[in-house]
Design a protein that fits this description.
392 residues, alpha/beta, Rossmann fold, four-stranded parallel beta sheet, 12 helices
């Protein structure tokens, strides 16, 4: 994977400022910035939170209330903040186990604790060189570039640009710590579902749908990864890797068919989004002779609202109505394999491990340390200042 450098990287550490795809100089960091999406923690938080998520789009509260019922079903509490608290503790424990003296600061895009608070706290404590880990493994505007824009916005709004630097670990979709966290769940689900005399279960790998134009622009512009861009290509590659590694544990898995599906579409009907939708696909499977399926939320690092509502409610209900036995497999969460993998990536970046020595389980990786020019464009808003990448 080769690209051309056209500029320097704003808000970056000295080791990353020149814009090389893979850093070659070891870098000392003062802290880790855990960047999350955020979620409401009570009924009164739901609409203000959704206003934050949709800021700038002019969506009235009555339309937001149509989405709010997902959160209200769970008492107005999104699981995501509790999950990130647990992840923060797990990361701190793994750092301590390895003897790495780095504090972990946690901040969100859309709800408290906000990224502004986390970065300001780090600066107040004298920790001004931060390495960020965003809770999303893949390349797209919403899953990577928007976090990088958040970092730039926060550094500018707090007046800390020039004092605090923020780098970001590489997109970790094909790091073995992420991929291997899915494998036991897939093997266990298929083993439980597969009954003698019946066809093999179908495995549906699912991720959040995004507009097709956003997908096409995901990843660096000079990489030809098809109409679905890096976003679709990365998910397909990871699904294939999960099935391959599952077959190494149970040879029967080599005979199990799988496919990539999408969920949680939220755009207008006139706007094309990635398909097929998981519920639509489930309704078609009985006619294809399928009697059972494993649903693998490969696009999610933990049990987000989209997992708990769109899969555990809507998708499993669709399977029941179609007469299919179905199991939803676990997300990485705080699986020790996943947590260890994150800290592996932190150490990799600090040590400037050569590209050829970096672990990856697909032909797409390892992904870049420094995002490339014009990477993951926002079709609607264009390019805004962003950290951890070369300006377009």
């Amino acid at each position: 994977m080769e690209t051309t450098d056209t500029g320097i990287v704003p808000f970056a550490s000295p080791a990353s400022a020149a814009g090389a795809p893979f850093v070659t100089e070891p870098q000392r960091y003062d802290g880790i910035l855990l960047a999350g999406f955020g979620g409401p923690e009570g009924q009164e938080d739901v609409i203000p939170f959704l206003r934050n998520v949709t800021r700038g789009r002019g969506i009235p509260d009555e339309r937001l209330e149509e989405v709010a019922h997902h959160y209200r079903h769970f008492g107005g509490v999104s699981p995501i903040n509790a999950q990130n608290r647990a992840l923060k503790q797990a990361l701190e424990a793994e750092l301590a186990r390895r003897g790495i003296d780095l504090p972990v600061y946690w901040g969100n895009r859309n709800w408290g604790p906000y990224l502004e608070d986390a970065v300001s706290q780090a600066a107040e404590e004298g920790n001004t060189r931060l390495l960020a880990f965003a809770t999303s493994a893949y390349s797209s505007f919403s899953s990577c570039r928007q976090y990088r824009e958040d970092f730039a916005r926060v550094l500018t709004s707090t007046g800390l640009a020039g004092t605090v630097t923020i780098d970001k670990i590489r997109q970790f979709f094909d790091h073995p710590g992420f991929v291997d966290a899915f494998v036991p769940g897939v093997v266990d689900a298929v083993s439980e579902l597969w009954r003698e005399g019946e066809p093999a279960p179908r495995v549906l790998f699912t991720t959040h749908s995004i507009p097709t134009e956003d997908a096409r622009r995901s990843g660096p512009r000079d990489l030809d990864l098809g109409e679905g861009g890096a976003y679709e290509a990365q998910h397909r590659a990871v699904a294939e890797a999960v099935m391959r590694r599952a077959a190494e544990r149970d040879a029967r898995m080599a005979d199990v068919a799988w496919e990539l599906v999408y969920q949680s579409r939220s755009g207008p009907a006139s706007q094309p989004w990635l398909e097929p939708d998981i519920v639509d696909r489930i309704t078609e499977l009985p006619a294809e002779g399928v009697t059972s399926l494993a649903i693998v939320p490969v696009g999610f690092v933990s049990d987000h609202m989209e997992v708990m509502w769109d899969l555990d409610n809507e998708a499993l209900e669709a399977a029941e109505e179609a007469g299919l036995r179905a199991i939803r497999t676990p997300t990485p969460g705080v699986d020790p394999v996943y947590v260890s993998g994150i800290i592996d990536l932190v150490e990799e970046r600090m040590a400037a491990v050569p590209r050829e020595d970096r672990p990856h389980v697909t032909d797409l990786g390892p992904w870049f340390d420094v995002c490339r020019p014009a990477c993951c464009e926002n079709v609607r808003a264009g390019f805004k200042p962003a950290a951890a990448g070369i300006a377009p």
